[in-house]
Structure formats: C-alpha cells, structure tokens
Amino acid sequence: MRARILYVVLAVCLLVGLVGCGGKKSTAPACRPNCTYKDMVVGFLQTGSEGGWRAANSASFRETAEQLGITLKFYDSQNDLARQVAGFHQFIQDPEVNVIILAALETTGWEEVLKEAQEAGKIVVLEDRRIDAPPELYATYIGSDFAEEGRKAADEMCRLLEGSEKKNVWELVGNVGSSAAKDRGQGFRERMGQCGIQITKSQTGNWSITEGKQVTEAWLKETTDVQGIFAQNDEMGLGAIEALKEAGLKPGVDVKIVSVDATAGAFKAMLAGELNVTVECNPLLAPQVYEAALKALNGEQLPKWVPSQEGVFRADMPNLKEIAESRKY
Ligand code: GZL
Fold first, then answer.
1. Is the pLDDT of residue 13 over 60?
2. CA 21, 27, 33, 34: dihedral to nearest 10 degrees?
3. Of the residues 72, 127, 133, 295, which has the maximum number of CB atoms within 10 A of its CB?
4. What is the pLDDT of residues 123-141, one digit of tens each?
5. In the chain, what are the domains?
6. For residue 33, is the peptide bond before it cis, meaning its omega torsion is within 30 degrees of 0?
7. 320 alpha carbon to ligand 1 midpoint, in Å?
C-alpha cells in the first residue's frame, strides 16, 4: 500500500514538474527557431500622444511594421497608467499576440503583469522607457540613457551661463513617475555643481506646452531672478518661451533655455534665437526593437539594455538650418 501511495505522489510531482507549479505551461512560439517578421503579432502599449517625440515614435512603429510585414496591434494608453496595465492584460489574453512591446508610463508596478506574460509564453520588449523590474522578466530594453541626456543638458547650461554672476535655473519636469523624468533630473544634478548652477524652482509640466507655459507664468509672477531654464522635453521648453515673451523677457537671450528631444519644434525655436540647445533623444526605435523581438522569439538571449546613440544641437551651429531640413521629426 505504502509503495502504491509513493508511486502516485511521484507521478503527480513528475506531472507538475513538466507543466510547472501553476499548472500553466510556458509555451515557446510554434515557429521557433525559424520565426520571421511575418510570424510576429505585436501588441504595442504606447504611452499616449503627448507631443512631437511621441508622434515620431508611434510613426516609427507603424511604418516599420508595415515595411516588415509585422501584424501590429496598437494600443494608446492615453497617458493613463491604469489603462496601460489593462491593455497589457488584454494582450496577454489575446491568443494571436506573441510579442508585447511596452513604452512604460511609469517605472513601477509591472512585476505581476510581466510574470503573467512570461507564463503565457509572450515575449516582452521594453522600448523608450526603462522600468524597475527583475530583468529576467523581459527580453531587453531599447531606449536612451536619460541620465546622460541630463548630464549633457547641465554641461550645455554651464557653457551658456559661463561668466554669469548668478546661475539660478528653473526645471520643468516631465511625468514625475517616468524613467525619462527621474533620470534626466538625476543626470542634470550630477553635473550642475561643476559650474555653480542652483535649481531654484522645479515642477512638473507633464511633457506639455500648455503646462510648461502655465508653470513658468506662475513662477514669473513670483520673481524674474532666473538665468536659465532646463526643460526636460522640447514641448515644455516651448511653453516656457511663450511665458517669457508674454512677460517681456527675451527667451534665449535674457534667459538661456536648454531642452531635450531635438524635435522639429525645437529646431524652429533655435532658428528663431529663442531656444539655445536641444539634447537629442532618438524616437525612431522600431527597427532595433523589432529586430530584438524577433531574436527573442527565436529563443536568443539578449543584452538587457541597448542604449540609443544621440547628439546635441545648438542654436549657434553654422549649418543648423540644413540639419533641421534633413531631419525626419
Ligand atoms: C523620451 C520620451 C519622453 C520625451 C517626451 O524617450 O520617453 O516622453 O522626452 C515624451 O517628449 O513625452
């Protein structure tokens, strides 16, 4: 009798071992290791449509999917985290989707849904925004080194304020929970001490022109003792420019402005002499992301972060107009 019970227990353990504790088998895609782009059905969780950078990023994923023959299911999270998580669950339950691409609105709160995706055998690739989660829960992260962008912005502001008696800088912050906002702020603070910059005001403008202008207007009502504005994206920088002009100040002259993204709006403002510098942040990530997703679909192990290569553009560049005309966004 005891022997029979032992056999039954062993058989059950063997069965559980085969299908995993949760009874959910983690299934490899049927096409592996010969999957092609035409086998890829991508659930893309985009943040929303908050500005020029995002529009270029979305266009990159739509256009590249069409060129490669990828089936793309585009989900607009409308800059609402709960909506983005709901979309993630939707793609986990969608039997057609074998790859989920996430541009995370915020860095935290992803571990559970990533585990569910892994148990469902879905490949997850992070694009644009990094998250705080165990790296074994996603294939790779493809996006910028936002801290380096912040360091570059501080170096540029130091150059612009060289010789200035005062170096009071106001900071317009993006969505405070996002990796882009956290890391750009951290990078700027790492470097600003080298030249005596003080951040005397800092507040979120939520990546938008409207809020960037509103925040700057409110600050100007309190004081005009400001020598520089660090806007964590171009849209907020453009909002600050509008507020400065309405207050009778010359943006780019009375107050130096450094922003991030290098979108068409920033080049226009630099050509008008109203913006001094924009630090590039590349939105055209889709080719790199889809290539990584295909490798992961075929079972390849990938580095956990592939940083984008980016530059800096200044209003005093001699060939700025030609550069602006040659850019895709
Ligand atoms: C940066 C991206 C940021 C842009 C903003 O990679 O996540 O989000 O800098 C956008 O313009 O809203």
1. no
2. 180
3. 127
4. 999 999 999 999 999 999 9
5. 27-143+283-298 (3.40.50.2300), 146-281+313-325 (3.40.50.2300)
6. yes
7. 23
Tell me, in angstroms, the distance from the centre of ligand 1 to residue 193's CA: 25
Query: Which amino acid does the sequence have at 142?
Result: I
How many angstroms from the chain centroid is the CA of residue 297?
23
- In this prediction, residues 206-231 reach a mean pLDDT of 98
In terms of DSSP bridges, do strands 312-314 and 305-307 run parallel, antiparallel, or are they unpaired?
unpaired
pLDDT band at residue 194, thresholds of 50, 70 and 90?
very high
The residue nearest atom 3 of ligand 1, judged by CA position, is: 180
Alpha carbon nearest to ligand 1 atom 9, residue: 233
Q: Quick check: 64 and 287 in contact, CB under 8 A?
A: yes
Q: Are 228 and 168 in contact (CB under 8 A)?
A: yes
Q: How far is the CA of 8 from the centre of ligand 1 (A)?
A: 57
Residues with CB under 6 A from ligand 1: 50-51, 53-54, 128-129, 144, 180, 207, 233, 260-261, 281
Quick one: which atom of ligand 1 is closest to the CA of 53? Answer: 11
The pLDDT tens digits for 24-60 are: 445 778 899 999 999 999 999 999 999 999 999 999 9
